[in-house]
Design goal:
Blueprint (H helix, E strand, L loop, with lengths): L1 E7 H11 L10 H13 L5 E11 L6 H9 L7 E7 L1 E2 L26 E2 L3 H14 L5 E5 L6 H9 L3 E6 L5 H6 L2 E4 L11
Length: 197
């Protein structure tokens, strides 16, 4: 049985950071742990990992240069990895005051820019890749590592064509998404199996 993993990097990283700020994953061990857990749920001993899809983003700030280098040189070395990291886009507007509804483009204290960056199209890219790979019959089971309910329509469509999605969830996050998936397991409970030593 063919299986593919679809991992939302920032959803994964920030969820683990909230759970345990000191946790560092072993990225080479992670796909095997996910496939093993899916195998137990499916009661299927011969799952064949097709793709370990990792989607993320980085900013153009100097602080993110290391992340960009790591994502483009280290992650692709993982067996079966398909890595897509895109540059975040500059926001055109700043935060809005909840009282007067005026936009704040400059910090009133340091005079720095309040225009942050935003991730564009990453969730759409994950969902599109899930559907495209299903259409190409690249997998029969999807392991989705994200708590984002935006994936519900894609998961529902996959179910309608006989493809099972297993949700690798983070404790109490992603309850709505979990309801639409064929099965789920708590990835945070497995962290000792893929913790970097």
């Amino acid at each position: 049985m063919k299986v593919s993993i679809f991992l939302d990097f920032w959803n994964f990283s920030l969820s683990f950071r909230d759970d345990d700020p000191s946790f560092r994953p072993d990225w080479f061990a992670l796909p095997n742990v996910l496939v093993s857990e899916a195998s137990s749920l499916l009661k299927e001993t011969s799952l064949d990992l097709q793709d370990f899809n990792i989607f993320g983003s980085y900013s153009n700030l100097p602080a993110d240069a290391k992340l960009k280098n790591w994502a483009t040189t280290f992650l692709p070395k993982i067996p079966a990895a398909n890595v897509v990291f895109r540059q975040r886009q500059q926001k055109l507007s700043g935060p809005v005051c909840t009282s007067c509804h005026n936009q704040i483009k400059t910090c009133p204290f340091c005079k720095g820019s309040m225009l942050g960056t935003e991730e564009k199209c990453i969730d759409t890219l994950i969902a599109t890749t899930m559907l495209q790979d299903a259409w190409m019959k690249k997998y029969e089971v999807a392991i989705l590592v994200s708590g984002d309910k935006d994936f519900i329509p894609a998961v529902d469509f996959l179910r309608s064509v006989g493809i099972r999605t297993i949700h690798a969830q983070f404790k109490h996050l992603g309850a709505e998404l979990r309801k639409h998936c064929w099965g789920s397991f708590e990835i945070t409970a497995l962290k000792n199996k893929f913790q970097k030593s």
